[in-house]
Amino acid sequence: MKLKEDEVIKGIKPKEVLNPRRTVFSYFGFDSRKIKDSSLFFAIKGERDGHDFIRDAFSKGAKGAVVERKIGGIPLFIVGNTLKALGDLASFSLSLNSTERIGITGSAGKTTTKEFINYFLSQRFSAERTPGNWNNLIGVPTFLLNRSKGSKYLIIEMGISEKGEMGRLVEITSPTTAMITRIYEAHTEFLNSIEEVRKEKNRIFLRARRAAFNLDDKMQEKLWRDFQGEKRFYSAFKKADVRLLRWNRISPLELSVEISYLGKKLNGRFHFWSSVFLENLLGSLALSSFFLKEPPEFDNLRPLEGRGKAWEKGRITFIDESYNSNPSSLLRSLTCLSSLEGKKIAVISDMLELKEPEKEHKQIGKAVSGLEIDLIIFAGELMKFAAAEAGRKREGILWAESPESAGKILEKKIISNSIVFFKGSHATELWKEVERWK
User: Fold this and answer.
1) CA-based, 20 to 30 A from 202: which of 57, 218, 233, 263?
2) Shortest CA distance to 204 belongs to which of 227, 184, 185?
């Protein structure tokens, strides 16, 4: 969208404006490499200080910069905190036109659910969603500022890693409709406990008038009981507005599904390898039902990179969940893998951002001992604890010091008609090994 200079001033309330030019800004960014003509550049301090790249941004076409210190000769909006100013301007921009803002958070399945909802709503309305993993205090406001002015629905993924982030994201976005996919032990390194995770994520409902709740997640019961707005419930096992009636496996990569959608039966093919993703389908249907009179079709939904994408190559099936991992989501995926027919190999790298990483990796090692997976290659210093526990109770357990080393082991062990599954936290870079098999 476009913002005039005086609108920027209203939005961020700068301490001082230097060299004003009555500019109309048509792009808003923090990465000088991606700046376009007529941009407003935000000099954000992170691993690198954005103030060091202001001249570069202006050489690429920036017409103004939001800064915390003076730099001579160029149009500047001086503020106390550039990250806060970015959020403030995004929030102000939302007041300029009417939109339905859908907030999605959770310890697993956020991005997949966001994409499903966008697919359903885009069939009948103008809708946009946060791209990729733009779910934090930089990505969300940047998306909002660069959205199309005419979009009726904004689907906003909201991720957190520490206390206070969700509250700030809600200040910026004011979601009118909201949902939490699942509450797991993700980010407990920073939030201390799963109860802290629940309290932090619960803030997404502060300004919402409508919300969808997962009846299969015990952590959500208190949340939906306290919520005063309009509710939709979904479940794979219980009576709900959107309920899974049955599913059958058609192939290792495809399911046949029947769903009750507000009392109507909905049938289709679900092109995902794991029944775990049915929960994301149910949740996205439940939330979309606030806005859709007729049930949408889901036959054309496909998995995302690193989040369940699967393919066949040389009579081998590969499944990629290398984008993220936590104990609960990992165990659910491994249990599903165990149920498939054929030779099964799992390559699993470290789970990060856990409060008690050694203990939780040991628990994974114990849990996999009873699963029917022919070979499990644990990769990384934390997965050494899992490998040691699993190796006490079963065969087919190997450990590698890194994902790269695990990849070399896989090359020697892989055979035709195998199913190879990858999962790990993104920062472990297991995804680099996945790329070699595409």
Assistant:
1) 263
2) 227
The predicted model scores a pTM of 0.93
Element at 9 (helix H, strand E): helix 5-12
- In a domain? residue 134: yes
80 in the same domain as 156: no
Q: What's the domain count of the chain?
A: 3
Indicate whether 374 and 267 sit together in one domain.
Answer: no
- Tell me, yes or no, whether 25 and 149 share the same domain: no
Record the tokens describing residue 354, joined without a space. 């856990």
Mean pLDDT by runs of 10 across the 438 residues of the chain is: 96 95 95 95 94 95 95 91 98 95 94 97 96 94 94 95 92 98 68 79 95 96 95 97 97 96 96 96 98 93 95 95 94 96 96 92 95 97 97 96 97 94 97 96
- C-beta separation of 432 from 349 below 8 A: no
The answer to whether residues 278 and 334 belong to one domain is: no
| Domain residue limits at 334 | 309-435
Q: Give the distance from CA 137 to its chain's centroid.
A: 14
Separation between Cα atoms, residue 420 and residue 424, nearest integer Å: 14
C-alpha separations of 81 from 32, 66, 85 in Å: 18, 9, 6
* CB neighbour list of residue 216: distance below 8 Å, 6 or more residues apart: 235, 236, 237, 238, 279
